[in-house]
Amino acid sequence: MTTHRQERRGHGESLIELVARANHLLTESFQGQLKAHGVSATEWRVLAALAVRDGSTMTELAELVLFKQPTLTKAVDRMERAQLVQRRTPEKDRRRTLVHLTERGQRIAAPLLARARQHELAVARALGEPRCSELCAGLAELIERIQELPRGGRPRSAGAGAAAD
User: Fold this and answer.
1) What is the mean pLDDT of residues 67-90?
2) How far apart are CA 38 and CA 32, in angstroms?
3) Chain center to CA of 116
4) Quick one: CA dihedral 77, 46, 21, 14, positive or negative?
5) Which residues, 6 or more positions from 50, have their beta carbon under 8 angstroms from its beta carbon?
6) Domain encompassing residue 112
7) Does residue 59 sit within a domain?
8) Domain annotation covers residue 33
9) The total number of structural domains that make up the chain
């Protein structure tokens, strides 16, 4: 008798489907922690990024959290109203806007970062440390290789892009 998991693998899920499913399940399994602190997944990503790089520009932050500018702007607006973050304009460069965690944002982010580390350790134990390390290295390499592809993600054929270069 085959399990549902074996059936799905047997149907040949693509790499994209597997990565998307893994991301969904990892995120979903952490949702309870976020809800307990009254934070959405979107807000959590911003809090976590700012906990590492406080004072990021909106452009830097969008790259860190993988959001488009309008999505990030709306999230930061909500977070500013909730007193989790604050926008500041440096005196030396009035064209830039930096996003900082407030004291309240820091108080919420700190325990969530600890819970996120615990969650990651639990996942690593479930998978096995060596296998987890191997998976992380493989995913890091995948990200690097994808970033090397031409914009749009399509590899160039030998004849198609050569004349344009």
Assistant:
1) 96
2) 10
3) 13
4) positive
5) 56, 61, 85, 99, 100, 101, 105, 109
6) 22-148
7) yes
8) yes
9) 1
Which of 123, 87, 101 is CA-nearest to residue 49? 101
**Is residue 65 one of the residues assigned to a domain?**
yes
Angstrom distance (rounded) from CA 76 to CA 60:
13
With bands split at pLDDT 50, 70 and 90, how would you rate the model's confidence at 33? confident
pLDDT digit string, tens, across residues 100-145: 999 999 999 999 999 999 999 999 999 999 999 999 999 999 999 9
HEC string for the chain: CCCHHHHHHHCCCCHHHHHHHHHHHHHHHHHHHHHHCCCCHHHHHHHHHHHHCCCEEHHHHHHHHCCCHHHHHHHHHHHHHCCCEEEECCCCCCCCCEEEECHHHHHHHHHHHHHHHHHHHHHHHHHCHHHHHHHHHHHHHHHHHHHHCCCCCCCCCCCCCCCCC
Type of residue found at 153: G
Q: What is the mean pLDDT of residues 158-162?
A: 41
